[in-house]
Amino acid sequence: MADDVRQRAVSAADAWGLRHLNELPGGTVALVLADEDVVLKVHPRGHPDDEQLIAEGVALQAWSATGAAAQLYGRRDGGSTLLLERLTPGTPLEAAGVSWDERLEVLGTLVGRLHAALQPAVGSPHIGGTYSRDWRRTLGDSQLLSPAADDVLLHSDLHGGNALRAGARWRIIDPHAVRGDRHADIWALIDPLAPVPPDARTARTWIRRYAAAANLDSDRAAEWVHYRARGEALDGADGDHAWAERLTHMANLLGAADRPG
Fold first, then answer.
1. If residue 55 lies in a helix (H) or strand (E), which one and from where to where?
2. Of 50, 85, 120, which residue sits at a domain end?
């Protein structure tokens, strides 16, 4: 797999005339290289999230008119090799020294802008059908996962590391693009680096702040936070035991908030 990534990086660099590539820090799945004002991103093939990784280019193209995402300049290898705009200065939101409340508002606003774009009819999987997390296995079937006429294209992985400063604005990178209920786009609230709410009231306050910025119904968003937190925890939370505990805590807080008394 690594050899395939390296070979495709060389082929893409030659095809696109890239001569001064340097590896960018932070990537854990794709090889990410920069050459002046462009980025070459080479996804592995045969990864469990293949469909979402390949759909990244589809999503960025669909969102191009919103101004909220990095621009897509080219695609190769069935969409697993991308040529992208390099955002500068590229400071991640999580490193910008903003408060947690402001981070929720920035990420929520970006999500709302993405959801307002015209959606592609094909090229992105559905969150209830082909997402690598088998929530039906861990949680049972749910109406949340059923396709609906008002489904949108979701970023699905928008957190403080995937929103970068571009001039005076914030823009997104690295979507795990799937179609689904817009209220499922709540990763900022369950991300491994998100703070832990001390009680149900605080958890609900955070969800309302994010939902207001993203133009979401807060109760529906809370339902998705509860569902995705439980699902990620039961699926093993990528082997991160501390994160699994935080996810379970969030799910329990929201479950308690929903019970009378």
1. helix 50-62
2. 85
